[in-house]
Amino acid sequence: MKNRCEDPAPRNRAATHVRASWITPLRRWFDTQGPDQYPAIDRAARDDIDWPRAIPFLLIHAGCLGVLWVGATPVAVATAIAMYVMRMFFLTAFYHRYFSHRAFRTSRAAQFVFAVLGASCVQRGPLWWAAHHSSHHAHADTHADQHSPGRLGFWRSHTGWFLTRGAFATNWDRVPDLRGYPELRWLDRYDITVPLAVLASMYGLGTMLQRLAPGLGTSGMQMTVWGFCISTVAVYHATFCINSLAHRLGKARFHTGDDSRNNFWLALLTLGEGWHNNHHFYPGSARQGFRGREVDLTWYGLWLLGKTGLIWDLKPIPAWVLKKGKD
To answer: 76 Cβ partners below 8 Å, 6+ apart?
Structure first.
């Protein structure tokens, strides 16, 4: 007699495996630390692009093409510029200088607000971002650096690395002082939550303006394209240029043992992150433009926040650092 408990036919198992192979990555869009994580990753597969997981990243880029249908208006372009500047500040001030380097102190409530604002940049959760950045500093431009342009080439260091299977998980050992906060772990796990809220707010803003101020000529879809897609892609690639171009173009004031460079134009584009050689030499400072002529807009914003009392103990540049570097 046939055993009713035996496995289904091979054909059904194959079909189930095909469905699971696509459904599982889709579930990870919403829950990055759930039971559908990669159970084990073969060393040879760690550097493979996880294409199902890359779909949202590709869709945001494709969304920029919507400008061909929605057109442009002054209010939409101004919104895109404002969203770029604000989110670039959130990324550099909070994800980078606070969560990655603890360059200043703040309250627990403000810490969570900073994490939410940083998550609006659509670059994963704060703990994931800080852990990978910590690894970069520990292994800059060596074989263990996941985005070294000298080892991997421009495109791999610019975008390809974070789309790989090996880069998907958060290394908790890199953020021992932050992983104890359940609110940060939640935000890291459900990192799509804030970007979806930003997308919805852009659509809602455009719809509201279309009804209340029709003379502006905007709409929900136009604001979605400009305020979310175009501004997000601009923040993406400006940030990625620090991984790729700031290790290739510019001048090295300090000997750091890696290929980091200072680049004035990248500093303007990223509100101060282009002073990358400075940062690699002394990453703990809240200010990355070590000289008065080195424009660091993020530092100016942090200085103002410090005056309000919202943040404090901004770490300065030591005098020995200022004396050591060559002009």
So the answer is: 70, 206, 218, 222, 223, 225, 226, 227
Reduce the DSSP state of residue 164 to 3 states and report it: strand
Closest residue by Cα to residue 33 from 196, 198, 197, 187 = 187
**Segment holding 106, helix H or strand E:** strand 105-106
Closest among 312, 10, 45 to 165, alpha carbons compared: 45
Burial letters 175-214, b for 16+ CB under 10 A, else e: beebbebeebbebbbbbbebbeebbeebbebbbebbeeee
Q: What is the DSSP string of 136-153?
A: HHHTTTSTT-TT-HHHH-
Can you tell me the distance from the alpha carbon of 114 to that of 98, in angstroms, rounded to the nearest whole number? Answer: 9
Taking only the tens place, the pLDDT of each residue in 225-273 is 999 999 999 999 999 999 999 999 999 999 999 899 999 999 999 999 9
- Predicted structure pTM score: 0.89
Given a contact cutoff of 8 angstroms between Cβ atoms, the answer to whether 115 and 99 are in contact is: yes
> pLDDT for 67-115, tens place per residue?
999 999 999 999 999 999 999 999 999 999 999 999 999 999 999 999 9
Residues 6+ apart with CB under 8 A from 67: 225, 226, 230
Q: How many CB atoms lie within 10 A of CB 65?
A: 10
Contacts of residue 110, Cβ cutoff 8 Å, sequence gap at least 6: 310, 311
The model's pLDDT over 22-45, given as tens digits with 9 standing for 90+, comes to 556 677 778 787 655 555 556 667
Contact 103, 315 (CB under 8 A): yes
Task: Say how far apart CA 252 and CA 327 lie, in whole Å.
Answer: 9
